[in-house]
Amino acid sequence: MIIGATSYPRGTHLGLHVHREAQLLFASSGIMQVTTPKGRWLVPPARAVWLPPGIEHAVDVLADIEMRALLVPSDWLATHPDALRLNREFVVTVGPLLRETILAAFKHAANAKRINLLVEVALFELAEDEDAATFIPLPNDPRARRVADMILADPANDRELELLAHAAGASARTVTRLFSAETNLTFKEWRQRARIMAAVEALGSGKTSIKQLAAQLGFSSVAAFGHAFRQIMGMTPGEMMRRSSRKD
């Protein structure tokens, strides 16, 4: 097993790369975004992302982070009872046991046997706590992908679907069908998730108030913004700000 602890300031970009080992990335404080060919994964302190061996990915730091990484050799992973399930990338909710297990590995970095046992516990926890709410899947069809790219470039833009679809060379009906088929989300759900991810990035900067952000992203009120945010992130915007700045 390999473990690593690194601090990265907001704005750090780790370009596309791969590891021979599987990787569990966890930010004990701060927020990061992990991009793979399948989409974008938002990873606040209450989440961790699992990446199998050989998965190309990039990391963007949205708020100063204290990153913890557990690297699991592929041959060791192949013998794990959940090896098939762990052969894809996903985000998990970090409950008390998983959080303390990850942090404990770094307290006993010199004890290889103890680290192996802790990683074993962590992998079993991964099988129980998958959470796809902070994942934005990217459609494969070039027309739907153009619509997705336009929204991600400007999440606050409230252009009607008809206008976005026309700009992408498709009908609104076609784009609606493609988003549902290729992302398992309705277009409305996908757009809402993109806005919340943009909100998390803005909150990480610490330069925008929650009230300003709600207005900028087109929400009718702070309460409506808070409700939508909590539905996806499992916490309020204020709680997110406090957790991202907490140090362990």
Provide a descriptive summary of the structure in words:
With 248 residues, the chain is an alpha+beta fold. The chain is 44% helix and 24% strand. Keywords: DNA-binding, Repressor, Transcription, Transcription regulation.
Helix/strand layout:
Blueprint: E1 2-8, E2 13-17, E3 22-36, E4 39-43, E5 47-51, E6 57-72, H1 74-78, E7 90-93, H2 96-107, H3 112-126, E8 135-137, H4 142-153, H5 161-167, H6 172-183, H7 187-205, H8 210-216, H9 222-233, H10 237-245
Antiparallel strand pairs: 1-6, 2-6, 3-4, 3-5, 3-6, 4-8, 5-7
Helix pairs in contact: 2-3, 7-9, 8-9
Q: Total number of β-strand segments?
A: 8
Q: What name does CATH use for the topology of the largest domain? A: Jelly Rolls
Helix content: 40-55%
Ranges with pLDDT <50 over ≥5 residues?
A: none
The best one-word shape is: globular
Under the CATH scheme, the architecture of the largest domain is Sandwich
Outline the biggest β-sheet.
8 strands, antiparallel
Summarize the structure.
With 248 residues, the chain is an alpha+beta fold.
Output the keywords:
single chain; 248 residues; alpha+beta; Arc Repressor Mutant, subunit A; 2 domains; 8 strands; 24% strand; repressor; RmlC-like_jellyroll; transcription; transcription regulation
